[in-house]
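pipeline stage [seq->struct] | target=Glutamine cyclotransferase | organism=Hymenobacter glacieicola | residues=339
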Amino acid sequence: MNLSLSRLAPASLVALLLLTACPAKKDTAETENNAASQPALPQAPAFNPDSAYAYTAKQVAFGPRVPNTKAHVQTGDWIIGQFKAAGLTVKEQPFEAMAFDGKMLKSRNIIAQYMPQAPRRIAIFTHWDTRPFADKDKEKKNAPLDGASDGASGVGIALEIARVLSQQKDAAAPGVGVDFILFDSEDYGYDGSTQGEKKNLLGQQESWCLGSQHWAKNMVPANYKPNYGILLDMVGAKNGRFSREDLSRQQARDVVDKVWNTAAQLGYSDYFLFSDSPGITDDHVFTNQAGVRTIDIIDFLPSGEFQPYHHTTQDNMSIIDKRTLKAVGQTLLTTIYAE
Ligand SMILES: [Zn+2]
C-alpha cells in the first residue's frame, strides 16, 4: 500500500497536513484510557505465536509471492490446503487484472469461512501477494523482496486464528462466524516517489489493491454483510506500531475503539498506539466502498511514515518478532470472542 492524499477532501487535507506537521500531538482524553471502565475481557483461547511464526516462515520459504510466478501458485495452493485442513469452507476467486505497467496478472482471492452458517459474522482481510520490486531499497531497487511482514505475517496470523478456532469444541465456539478473505495482487502498485520514470496506466490509487477492487465488484460470498471487517497489513515486524489510521476512524470508529481498547486491556498498548495517523491506500478503501465497515491494522507511524523495512529487501524473516504476532493475534481472537 501507499500513502494517499488524492481521495481526501480539501478540508481533511489541511487537517492532515497539520497533523503531519505535529506528529507528537495526542488526544489526552483518549490516551488516558481507563481500563477499569472497560467491560471485562471474555475468555478467549490462546493464540500461539510459534505457530503463526512457522506459517509466516513457510510462505517466505516458497519465495516471493509475485503474481505469474511458480512460488505464487504454490503458496496459494498451500494456504488453501491449510484452511481446508482446519475444516473451513474454502472458495477461490480467480481473476486477471492489468497492472499499472500493462502486465496481466493471473490472480486469485482466497475466501475461507469458519462456521459458515452463523448469521453474525466478522471479516478478517489481508493480502497474500508480495510486491515484485524493493523500490524503496537503497541498493536493490529492482530486486524482489521476501515480504515477511508485508504479506506473509497477515496470512500467518489468519491461519493461526483459523487453526485455533477449528480446535474449539462447540461449547467453546465464539458467538460469530469468521471469514478470512485473502486478497491477491495488492502490492503491485505504482509509487510515484520511487517509480517516477515508469508510466502508470492506471489511476494513482487504482494501481494498488487489484484483488480487493475485483472482490468489491464481485463479492464472495454474494451479498456479503458482516458486522465489520478488520484488515491486517504488515503485522509481524519487531517494534510494530499500529496507529489509528484516518479512513478506519472515519468509517468504523467504534471498531477502532473496540480493538484498541481490547489490546490495551491485554497489555499491548506499546503496539496499538492511541495516536492517529493519516489515511492510506490499502484494501480497506475498497472493502469500505463495498459496504463492509473496515479498519486497517497496519505498521504505520502517527507521522504518516512507514517503518524503514517497507518495500525494501530488509522485509525478511530477520525482522519478524513473535511478540508482535502475539499482540495482534491475541487481540483479534479476544475481539472475536467479545462478540
Ligand atoms: Zn506493501
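stage status: PASS
auto-comment: The first strand starts at residue 2 and ends at 3. The pocket of zinc ion is lined by residues 1, 131, 150, 187, 311 (CB under 6 Å).
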